[in-house]
Specification:
Layout: E1 4-6, E2 9-11, H1 14-20, H2 22-33, E3 34-35, E4 38-39, H3 45-51, E5 56-61, H4 63-80, E6 83-88, H5 89-95, E7 104-109, H6 115-126, E8 131-135, H7 141-145, E9 148-149, H8 164-183, H9 189-223, E10 230-234, H10 237-253, E11 257-261, E12 279-283, H11 290-309, E13 313-318, E14 331-334, H12 342-360
Parallel strand pairs: 5-6, 5-7, 7-8, 8-9, 10-11, 10-12, 12-13, 13-14
Antiparallel strand pairs: 1-2, 3-4
Helix pairs in contact: 2-8, 2-9, 4-8, 4-10, 5-6, 8-9, 9-12, 10-12
Length: 378
């Protein structure tokens, strides 16, 4: 057990401290990549050379980093107009000749030393492909060997479950998306600046929301204590966060959990749903985005159907939602943000839920069994 202090608070575990460090980690990352409330072109020069002219991107990553890649797939396709394929790094070397032809390759890794992701990077390099490494260690092997390196600035992360390294990966991938959208003429400077300002606001909203989320997530964990399995549901970019939430619960609390696209629940997994197998539903929305509102309406109907079925439902909702609280009292409200930035916010209560679930089960949450911080041997 590690006791550390952040803003006069003593934390019993590194994982909780690192959850609380996320606003500062995001701010540090933004200081490197932004200038005068817009993108600083200097850190992206090598990226521009690596990806200029590419219409197709392969993202190779493992674990939490792959979930960040799944979120980036939505961002890059929707905002930058690129075709993106997300591969398990451990599979890339064995089927790389069957993936998108002549793509740019982005590898994502907290340590920059993950064995299968490093192997994927080297396979891409051997095939003459341009590569970009997003890691939390600017001097890592991946950062050195890639054509371009885009470090995150999360600082040292001691707990094995990824928290601040994951949110800063999302931030760097979002900034990469904005840069590529601008480079490809799909976004004006004014639009990029506006979205950069929103990203700063998201970091501050996270700082304000953390104490209340901690209290609510602790209550969620208590009410989930007897669950035999938990299904996490999300649509669009929120599916990636549902998968990350499920992984956090598995690795932190040793509870069976799976993340699914919300629309897939009735195609099989619904057979598992019951009082001992609750649902965690990501049901946030961006009121300025018609597609986001459509996804919300579909998710709202699913929540209604599951309530009628008798399911125990825990929901992440937008702060102004009045519909879902009429169906379930188990809600955590997420501050207003654009569709793609909601992911940075909504993953944090799921990290807290995993943390408190682990504590209730007497688990050393910083050092889960059978796991290491960086998998350096396949």
């Amino acid at each position: 057990m590690v006791e550390t202090v952040l803003e006069d608070r003593v934390f019993a575990h590194s994982m909780l401290r690192e959850i609380y460090e996320q606003p500062d980690a995001i701010a540090a990352t933004l200081r490197h990549y932004m200038l005068n409330e817009s993108l600083n072109p200097e850190p992206f020069k090598a990226l521009a050379e690596a990806l200029r002219g590419h219409e197709r991107i392969v993202i190779a990553a493992s674990g939490s980093s792959r979930h960040a890649g799944l979120a980036a797939e939505i961002m890059l396709e929707d905002l930058a107009g690129l075709t993106v394929d997300v591969e398990y790094a451990s599979e890339y070397c064995y089927r790389s000749t069957h993936t998108l032809q002549s793509p740019g390759v982005i590898v994502v890794s907290q340590s920059g030393e993950t064995a299968d992701t490093l192997a994927a990077l080297r396979e891409a390099t051997a095939r003459g492909l341009s590569t970009v490494a997003i890691t939390n260690h600017a001097g890592s092997t991946m950062a050195r060997e890639a054509t371009a390196s885009l470090p995150t600035y999360a600082g040292t992360e001691k707990a094995i479950p990824a928290t601040k390294s994951f949110t800063t990966q999302l931030v760097v991938l979002y900034l990469t998306t904005l840069y590529m959208a601008r480079l490809r003429g799909r976004m004006t400077n004014h639009a990029v600046s506006s979205l950069c300002e929103q990203l700063v606001e998201v970091g501050e909203a996270l700082r304000s929301a953390l104490p209340e989320w901690e209290r609510q997530a602790s209550g969620f964990a208590e009410r989930m204590r007897g669950a035999s399995a938990v299904l996490y549901l999300g649509r669009g970019i929120h599916y990636a966060i549902a998968r990350e939430g499920a992984l956090k619960l598995k690795e932190s609390a040793y509870m069976q959990a799976e993340g699914y696209p919300a629309g897939e629940l009735k195609h099989g997994p619904n057979a598992l749903v019951g009082k001992n197998a609750p649902l965690v539903v990501l049901a946030t929305r961006d009121g300025n985005d018609p597609d986001s509102m459509l996804r919300y309406e579909k998710t709202l109907q699913l929540v209604r159907d599951m309530h009628t079925q008798g399911a125990e439902i825990f929901a992440l909702i937008s702060e102004d939602d009045v519909e879902i609280p009429l169906i379930t009292a188990n809600v955590i409200r997420i501050p207003r943000a654009s569709e793609y930035l909601l992911s940075v916010l909504e993953v944090v209560p799921l990290q807290l839920l995993a943390y408190f679930s682990a504590i209730l089960r007497g688990i050393d949450v910083d050092n889960p069994r059978n796991l290491v911080k960086a998998v350096v041997q396949e």
